[in-house]
Specification:
It is a single chain. 78% of the residues lie in helices and 0% in strands. The protein has one domain. It has 13 helices and no strands. It starts with a helix and ends in a 6-residue tail after the last helix.
């Protein structure tokens, strides 16, 4: 089946089914959270030797974390489905939000590359002529630290996406407004956490992980979309008022 035909069929899918598909994809992309937990337990800040030992001793778990970050790229599908759902609310904001998400996904695509690069350095140490064990381990840790910075940058983009999506939910008539408010708060939390980490890392240490707790609203939204979907009649009414075809 061609990509064009698939896209056309998706476009003709009812808004409630699209919402449920979006929620399912959102739950699948929580694989990124699994990866974050694994890396958090294996990587020891400022201790390259311990980090290298943990990774090589738990190589399969580490590789599963890499796979989890790759799977999370399915967020592209989630972004597309939410864009279609929220076009009737405000097309321009839906487009801007989707762009922030897509750029965040592009930045996030670098994350598994840095993770694999660190593993290659540790596994292929013998091919790095002139590098001693300590230098190899230090190089791997630097790659993982750059990976963490890429993740932080992606959070800025996804945080902005959450704020915009939260606003769209609040303005919509087919989803509970409380979900939008909580999602917007989560987005603000991501932004505060990231910029504080960049500007005042010592202070940021006191905020984490509490500042990230509102991020649970993303799971709440995903659960609502899977179980309930959207109020299809209200979606169609808002789409009609906005001049958006219910089949486009």
């Amino acid at each position: 089946m061609s990509t064009t035909v698939t896209t056309e069929r998706m476009a003709q899918t009812s808004p409630r089914l699209q919402a449920r598909m979006a929620g399912l994809v959102a739950w699948i992309t929580t694989s990124a959270g699994f990866s974050l937990i694994v890396l958090g337990n294996l990587v020891v800040n400022d201790n390259a030797a311990a980090t290298a030992h943990n990774i090589l001793a738990n190589e399969l778990l580490y590789r599963l974390a890499v796979v989890g970050d790759v799977i999370s790229q399915l967020y592209i599908v989630y972004t597309f489905l939410l864009y279609k759902l929220f076009r009737p609310v405000n097309r321009n904001l839906a487009v801007v939000g989707a762009l922030f998400s897509m750029v965040g996904i592009a930045v996030g695509a670098l994350i598994p590359l840095f993770e694999l690069a660190a593993l290659v350095v540790l596994k292929e140490a013998h091919s790095l002529s002139g590098f001693g064990p300590e230098q190899v381990q230090a190089t791997a840790l630097v790659l993982l630290k750059v990976r963490a910075q890429a993740y932080a940058v992606s959070l800025v983009l996804f945080g902005t996406y959450n704020v915009l999506t939260g606003y769209l939910i609040v303005r919509s008539t087919f989803l509970p407004r409380i979900l939008g408010a909580l999602l917007a708060i989560a987005g603000v939390g991501y932004l505060i956490n990231t910029f504080t980490t960049f500007l005042a890392p010592d202070f940021a240490a006191h905020l984490s992980p509490w500042i990230m707790i509102p991020g649970g609203s993303e799971l709440l939204l995903a659960a609502w979309l899977v179980v309930v979907g959207v109020n299809e009649q209200r979606w169609k009414e808002q789409a009609s008022a906005a001049g958006v075809s219910v089949r486009a």
